[in-house]
Design a protein that fits this description.
By secondary structure, the chain is an alpha/beta fold. It has 4 domains: 67 residues, DNA Methylphosphotriester Repair Domain; 107 residues, Homeodomain-like (Arc Repressor Mutant, subunit A, Orthogonal Bundle), CATH 1.10.10; 67 residues, 2-Layer Sandwich (Double Stranded RNA Binding Domain), CATH 3.30.160.70; 89 residues, Arc Repressor Mutant, subunit A (Orthogonal Bundle), CATH 1.10.10. A 4-stranded mixed sheet has the order 3-1-2-4. It has a 4-stranded mixed sheet with strand order 7-6-5-8, with helices on both faces. A two-stranded parallel ribbon has the order 9-10. Helix 3 crosses helix 5, helix 6 packs antiparallel against helix 7 and helix 14 packs across helix 15. The longest helix is centred in the last third of the chain and has 21 residues.
Length: 360
C-alpha cells in the first residue's frame, strides 16, 4: 500500500486527536494497517496504535488502497440504509394495522431476531415498537375526536379495547379526557383581553385553570379566529379587568425579558407535546437550541419532526418560548408570528442578559 493514497494533510496529528476523541462527525476516514479495515473517526472499536493508522478523504480512496469497510461503524452507511428501510417498513405496517402488532410479528417481518430488530428500531426512532404503535393509536383517537366522532366510536376505531383504558391513562394518551378533546371547549368559558404591545396587537385568553392562548402581531379578528379554531365550542367573553395583571406581565416581558414569563397555564395537548412545551421553558432567555438538541432534551433524539410540530402548535407563545428554537445551521426558521419578530425577541433577550454577564 502506497502512502500516496492518503489525503495530503499536514496536520495529521489533528486528525489523530479527532480519532482519539471519537469525533463522529469529522469529515475523513482512518484505516488500520494491521487489520486491513477503515473506519469513521467515531468508531467504537479500540483505538489503533498511531503508527498503524492512515487517513483518507473518502471511502473510495480507502478501498482503492486495499482496505475494507469496518462492520462496526459502517463507514459507507450501507447497514444504516438497510436498517432505515427495515424500520420505515415496520412503521408503515404499524400505521396500517388496526391493532398493535406484536414484537414477534414485526421481527419476523423484518427478517431479524427480536433482539436485533428491537435494538435497530430504538436506534432509529428513539422508541420501542410498542411506544410507536401506541403513538399511532393516540393520533388516530385525537383526530377522530377532533372531527366530532362519538367517544365510544372514536375509541373503537382507534384500536383501543374499551373506553376505560383510555380514561385510565388520559394524560399519557391525549393530555386531556376524550370528552374534552371532542367538545373543543364546549361548556367552558374563556376570558379574553386585547392590548397594544411592542409587536402590535396582543390577545390573551384564559380559562379558570390558567392562560390557554397568547397571540400577537395580527389584527384583532385574526387573533380571535385563531383562538376560536383551537376552542370551537367554548364561550369566549371579553374580560379586560380580570386579565389586566396577566396582560401587564406579557407586555413587561416584551419590554424587558430578563426572566421567564411565569404565568399559570392551561396547556392541552398530547403527553409528548406537553413534554416538548415544558422543555422549551428550560431554555434560558437569549439562548437558542436546535430542533435536534431539543429532541435530545426531551429524551427522544429521533423525534425531530415531531418536536418541530409541537413547537408549531404551541398555543401560548412567549410563556412557552418556541422562538428560542432554530434550524440545524443556527438560522432562524419559520415562526408563527413572523421570523423578524423571532429575531427581535432573541436580540432583546440577549441585550437584557448583557448587564448580568458583564457584572459577573
Amino acid at each position: 500500500m502506497e502512502q500516496t493514497d492518503t489525503i495530503d494533510l499536514a496536520p495529521d496529528e489533528h486528525l489523530w486527536t479527532q480519532v482519539l476523541n471519537r469525533q463522529a462527525e469529522a469529515g475523513f476516514f482512518y484505516a488500520v494497517t494491521t487489520m486491513g479495515v477503515y473506519c469513521r473517526p467515531g468508531c467504537p472499536s479500540p483505538r489503533p496504535l498511531r503508527k498503524n493508522t492512515r487517513f483518507f478523504a473518502d471511502t473510495q480512496a480507502a478501498e482503492a488502497a486495499g482496505f475494507r469497510a469496518c462492520k462496526r461503524c459502517d463507514p459507507k452507511g450501507e447497514r444504516a440504509r438497510l436498517a432505515q428501510a427495515v424500520v420505515s417498513d415496520a412503521c408503515a405496517f404499524m400505521e396500517a394495522s388496526e391493532a398493535i402488532p406484536s414484537l414477534d410479528t414485526l421481527a419476523k417481518r423484518s427478517g431479524y431476531s427480536r433482539f436485533h430488530f428491537l435494538r435497530m428500531f430504538r436506534a432509529h426512532t428513539g422508541l420501542t415498537p410498542r411506544s410507536y404503535a401506541e403513538g399511532v393509536r393516540a393520533r388516530r383517537l385525537h383526530a377522530a375526536l377532533a372531527q366530532g366522532e362519538r367517544v365510544v366510536d372514536a375509541v373503537a376505531d382507534a384500536g383501543f379495547g374499551s373506553e376505560s383504558r383510555v380514561y385510565e391513562k388520559t394524560g399519557a394518551i391525549l393530555g386531556m379526557t376524550p370528552g374534552s378533546a371532542r367538545r373543543g371547549g364546549a361548556g367552558e368559558v374563556i376570558r379574553t383581553a386585547f392590548a397594544d404591545c411592542p409587536f402590535g396587537r396582543l390577545l390573551v385568553g384564559a380559562t379558570d385553570k390558567g392562560v390557554c392562548f397568547i397571540g400577537f402581531a395580527e389584527p384583532d379578528e385574526a387573533l380571535m379566529g385563531d383562538l376560536r379554531r383551537r376552542f370551537p365550542q367554548a364561550r369566549i367573553v371579553p374580560d379586560d379587568a380580570a386579565l389586566a395583571g396577566t396582560v401587564r406581565a406579557v407586555i413587561d416581558f416584551l419590554a424587558e425579558p430578563k426572566q421567564a414569563l411565569d404565568l399559570p397555564l392551561d396547556l392541552r395537548g398530547t403527553a409528548f407535546q406537553q413534554r416538548v412545551w415544558r422543555t422549551l421553558c428550560e431554555i434560558p432567555p437569549g439562548e437558542t437550541r436546535t430542533y435536534a438538541q431539543l429532541a435530545r432534551m426531551v429524551g427522544n433524539p429521533k423525534a425531530i419532526r415531531a418536536v418541530a410540530r409541537s413547537c408549531a402548535t404551541n398555543p401560548v407563545s412567549l410563556a412557552v418560548p418556541c422562538h428560542r428554537v432554530v434550524g440545524s445551521d443556527g438560522n432562524l426558521t419559520g415562526y408563527r408570528w413572523g421570523v423578524p419578530r423571532k429575531q427581535a425577541l432573541l436580540e432583546q433577550e440577549r441585550r437584557a442578559r448583557r448587564p448580568l454577564s458583564a457584572a459577573g
